[in-house]
Input
Amino acid sequence: MSGKMNIVLTVMLVGCALSVVNARYQARHLFIDIERLTQQQRQLEIDWAQLQLDQSTLGKNERIEQIARSELTMTPLSPARTQYLTEGGK
Amino acid sequence: MKAGTQGSRVAAGKGVAFSKSPVLAVRLPDWRSRVVLFVLFAAFIALAGRALWLQGVSNRFLQKQGASRYERTLELPATRGKIFDRNGVVLASSLPVKAVWGIPEDVKASSPEKLRQLAELLEMPQAELLKKLDSDRTFVYLKRQVEMDVIAKIEKLDIDGLDTRKEYKRFYPQGEVMAHMVGFTNVEDVGQEAMELAQQKNLVGQTGSRRVIKDRLGRIVEDVGLSREPHDGRDLILSVDSKLQYIAHNSIKEAVEKFHAKAGAAVVLDVHTGEVLALANWPTYNPNDRSHLTGEQLRNRVITDTFEPGSTLKPFTVALAMDKGLIKPTTLFDTGTRPYMTGGHPIRDTHPHGVIDVSTIIQKSSNIGTTKISEMLSSQEMWEMFTKVGFGQAPRYGFPGAVAGRVRPYKSWRIVEKANMSFGQGISMSLLQLAHAWLIFARDGDIIPLSFQKTSEKPVGQQIISPKTAAQMRTMVEMVVGPGGTASKAQVAGYRVGGKTGTAQKVIDGRYSQTRYVGNFVGIAPMSNPRFVIAVLIDDPSGVYHTGGSVAAPTFAALAANALRAENVPPDSTVTDIIIPEHPLEESN
Output
């Protein structure tokens, strides 16, 4: 009886030991994943900041005005040649 | 190991072995072996004791030593907060860059060709690079804030003793347009000017740290112990509108060039919220390249400079008298045809106006008329009015360097000084204070606090004059811009605007200069439902024109026209073509 018990316990012990090894292995893997993803997140944040900067630089009013005037030969709007439509008016 | 194992000592050979000789037989005393045994035993005990000691009792030191061989503390950098305008356009943002540093001795040892390439990549003359390397120290910064693509090229050169360190660089995409609003930081990422300085505490991030175990290849294997999360600096949303700011910047720049002025400044306030929508100065600077920065460029004339506004202050005297019920817009005053003597000093108008009503006093900007109105008021009443709208009071704008201006205590006012102050002389303030005070006319007589940050809540105002007086004042200042007023050049096609000009002689060496002026204009637009208060200042125009009506008023008109269009404000006037009289009326001062 006690011999059987011992065998059962031994099997259980080995099983537990193996599952610990497995869990440990999984944890390492997950850890590496999270590290990689954090790194990626940081890089994306930098890219985002860079793109925001680019947008602001390219969207500079000065640049838009210059291009509008010289390349597209546009002129500013004046009320004298604007038709205003009011809601409900005729 | 017992002595006297004679068998083994028998030499193999014939005859008598010498060791057999009883004379030669060595007899070791028994106690010697016991001593050896005891010493060995004691040594083992000592070892075991030591092992126990190290393992069990004094284990901290060794654990620390061990940990330092595989554990590392990583510093987790935090980014400085970004600055946005009210519409979400980035005005300032930090990006990671690297500082290049080296150990001079090792770097110098590399080939001259490599050093030449390095100098080229760092954009500095080779001589300067060599000078930096000519140092006894073991750590020398060669260049800070080098961008990443350059770093990649430098790393390819593979120079011994050269290394990089991570840091951040602040970028200002809007450049000189926003310079006076946003400010800048130094290489250590610490705010130096304007909002960068004012909001330093909120913008700066908190670096974190974590302790990790690294494997042989330097990869992180595990976290150990506590880690401190890094906290990025808070983002800041300013009240400024980059479109309006650009318009203000351009108008001021053009005006300074056109009127050959020394400098110019403009500020645009939102009437409903008290937000500063634009704040422009000329000359200005590029915050991204500050190598040739001068004090003139840095100077923020809207906030840190005071000036005597001149006639732009008259409406306050008139409003006070009207609010007290002493006068009505139609009350007549005889301004005469000659200088008016008060307290033994003459007060002059540029043109004789004769008998005119209060509206006309404002419209034609009569000094004599305003003096006569001020005679109905006590010094204390005037002082209280000035103080309540913020003149001479330390401003709480949350902007570094804001000045209080100067209003002397009313008890020391002489009669002529009181008269002078009624039309804006002998009292000084910043352009922002002046614009702020004008909110009482644009609003229904109350004043609200200014804000440099975008606000969503409705500000609580403090009533200064009655809504009725404010409305009457608006009608009067609209006449100033109309034909016959001093600021007909301030007209804007399609919109009703109003405002008041001011020309002050500059104080040079303690005296009023007769040739150098500060022209200014404060206006409200559009009149039917005020949206903006716009104040313009042109400092020392040296061309043909120098009065507020001829230099600041047209600048206001250009600024207001574009601002109203940019903000999609519907026109409230049918006048689409402006006729400006050939010789507009000159104001008195």
Notes: The radius of gyration of chain B is 41 Å. Residues 323 and 489 of chain B are 30 Å apart (CA to CA).
